[in-house]
Amino acid sequence: MGGDRAPGEVVAGARRAAEEHGIEIVLVGRPEALGDTGGLAVVPASEVIEMGDEPGAAVRRKKDASLVRAAEAVRDGKAAAMFSAGNTGAAMASALLRMGRIKGVARPAVATPLPVPGTTPTVLLDAGANAECQAAWLVQFAQMGSAYARARYGLDEPRVGLLSIGEESGKGNSLVKDAHRLLLEAGGVRFIGNVEGRDLLTDGVDVVVTDGFSGNVALKAMEGALRLLSDAVEGALPPDAWETVRPVLEGLDPEAYGGAMLLGVEGVCVIGHGASSATAVANGIVVAAELAAADLVSAVRSAIAA
Amino acid sequence: MGGDRAPGEVVAGARRAAEEHGIEIVLVGRPEALGDTGGLAVVPASEVIEMGDEPGAAVRRKKDASLVRAAEAVRDGKAAAMFSAGNTGAAMASALLRMGRIKGVARPAVATPLPVPGTTPTVLLDAGANAECQAAWLVQFAQMGSAYARARYGLDEPRVGLLSIGEESGKGNSLVKDAHRLLLEAGGVRFIGNVEGRDLLTDGVDVVVTDGFSGNVALKAMEGALRLLSDAVEGALPPDAWETVRPVLEGLDPEAYGGAMLLGVEGVCVIGHGASSATAVANGIVVAAELAAADLVSAVRSAIAA
Question: B232: nearest CA in chain A?
Answer without folding.
Answer: A248
